[in-house]
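Customer ticket, subject: "Can you confirm the structure for Probable dual-specificity RNA methyltransferase RlmN?"

Message body: Hello, I'm evaluating your service for our small team and ran a test protein. I'd like someone to confirm that this is what the system normally returns, since I don't have a reference to compare against.
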Amino acid sequence: MPKPGELTFTAPPRRSKPPRHLADLTLAERREAVAELGEKPFRAAQLSKHYFGHLSDDPEQWTDMPAATRARLAEALLPSLMTSVRDISCDDGATRKSLWKLFDGTLVEAVLMRYPDRVTMCVSSQAGCGMNCPFCATGQAGLTRNLSTGEIVEQVLAGARSLARGEVPGGPGRVSNIVFMGMGEPLANYKAVVGAVRRLVDPSPEGLGISARSVTMSTVGLVPAMYKLAEERIPVTLALSLHAPDDELRNTLVPVNTRWDVREVLDAAWHYEGVTGRRVSVEYALIKDINDHGWRADLLGRRLKNHNAHVNLIPLNPTPGSKWTASTAERQEEFVRLLTKHGVPVTVRDTRGRDIDGACGQLAAAEV
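Agent reply: Thanks for trying us out. I re-ran your input and got the following:
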């Protein structure tokens, strides 16, 4: 079994860091931070309960604390991390895409999707992306910087507050699922992303208390980080953005494949499945006349059969000016049939958000 290596994917230098936020810290670190402010350590649990349990970032609502304490804690541990630029909605308001401006002017996106049985938040882990996949709007923009743990968590909390206030059609609700499928490659921002996952799955007052099994982590296949994530023993779903079963094509569609090829990436995925017991989701964006051939479906089926994997076929959401476009319905149906023939479970992803610049990076690109 290969050992995890040292990752070399780093964000470009930045002039300053986001301000320290409660969500950046473990509960023990919050106690230390509160004590440094001259407050009793138990205030950390109170503050955490308000933030994660009651979804409150308004000191006026923290009536179990003296007014002076509220102001001191809010200023030191709950700085504003994001400013709303705009929201656009579709599906009668059940799908809402938000564009946020961070402290340094960086733009990031998050999407809230409400279904009859769940509410899913799609969050960004980086501003832009350095993986350079040519059919992806974020990949075309390049990488600006990594997001902090707090900036990632705040995307979820912003959606959770909107739901709790009944601002999303369907009445008050709660976020039940998180997918790290927004802007960026999550495993290239490993430390902050794993910290965010822990804040999201830890029970209140340490975190938001979402089931780890309801969190999906996507990756284009950073093999050392995939092995490292397995050793975290957090049973999130791993979503591998494969997009081609052969190295010749995948080298073009997912350039990181020139470093870790299809076989290495799948071996890391099977290791993750073996350690966590979680079925691996294989993401495959169907692109007309590029990767939607019958022989590629057959090869993909042969590579995945007898493994605990599920294929998520994604009708490509074309980006403006791109030569890439979605496969025909006939090609899509044939692809599904050939995978099913190999006994590989397959579904076609819901295309929510297509009419609101739903592909990652489209809304931010339109704002620039």
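A couple of notes from the result: The two ends are 45 Å apart (CA to CA). The chain is about 35% helix and 20% strand. Feel free to reply with more questions.
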